[in-house]
Amino acid sequence: MNVKQIDKPLQMEIDGVVQNETAIDCLTRNCPQISRQQLKRAMQFGAVWLARDTQVNRIRRSKKTLQTGDILHLYYNPSILNTPVQAATLVADEGSYSVWDKPGGMFSQGTRWGDHSSIARWVELNDTANRPAFLVHRLDRATRGLIIIAHTKKMAARLAHLFEKREIEKHYRAWVAGHFCLKSSPEKIDLPLDGKNALTYILSSQFDQASKRSLLRIKIETGRKHQIRQHLAALGFPVIGERLYAPEAAEASDKMLPDLQLVACYMAFTSPLDGARKVYELTD
């Protein structure tokens, strides 16, 4: 089979491992429909896992020596592996953690199908200090904005604790179609999501007469999946570029819709490093 015909996800478990065989040789022998070069690329992009004893970990080195009893798991998805990755931008380097501007379209973390298009892996590969990268919190793939990456496990735990205790203030900017008029200042949205409490505040609204759009400043106190997107859609003001919760999006081609106009633009908290007040903001 020509490699170009592999256009659908392929999941494979390989347990016929030969003692001292390299990982790439084992994959090539068991996956003749995929070229050796593409298999190496899949490994580098985090789509191959090694199960040894009770441990299951990604395996990236093609010449990794295998042992009898090892099991390789291949998760080959061309659409994921071929996804171009837009560069993230460093906002602040605080030593044991850094703050980045994650572009829309970039995942927060990888999946079993690969991690090359995730912010954590991108930072790991592009950090000039060659530090490990630990994800502290998440942003929707379609959402652009501020995200914290820890560089030690201890700092990751300390920052995650701040998020759990809701001691990190987060603001977002969202463009919505039409004139959004605040009923109160701020306007509280407490519509439960998936049976869980979800609390969103609309802090301000500015209407642009020329474009007939409103720019909202939003604060969240809970972090439910797609919370802002679902809450605004429930009010009848879905975020521009919304593909999941806007009724008209179901009938529109993706090419007709702009990128999601939602940005995590502000983050403030007391640093667990020195007790100083830290504020990070995107103004563009």
Biggest sheet architecture: 10 strands, mixed
Q: What's the count of strands?
A: 14
Average of the residue pLDDT scores:
91
The radius of gyration over CA amounts to 22 Å
The ordered H/E elements are: EHHEEEHEEHEEHEEEEHEE
Q: What kind of oligomer do you see?
A: single chain
Q: Which term fits the overall shape?
A: globular
- The share of residues in helices is 10-25%
- Helix/strand-derived class? alpha+beta
CATH domain topology of the largest domain: Pseudouridine synthase
Strand content of the residues, in percent?
Answer: 25-35%
CATH class of the largest domain, named: Alpha Beta
Annotated CATH architecture of the largest domain: 2-Layer Sandwich
Q: How many separate domains?
A: 3
Distance between the termini: 49 Å
CATH superfamily of the largest domain: Pseudouridine synthase
Low-confidence blocks of residues:
1-5
Supply the number of helical segments.
6
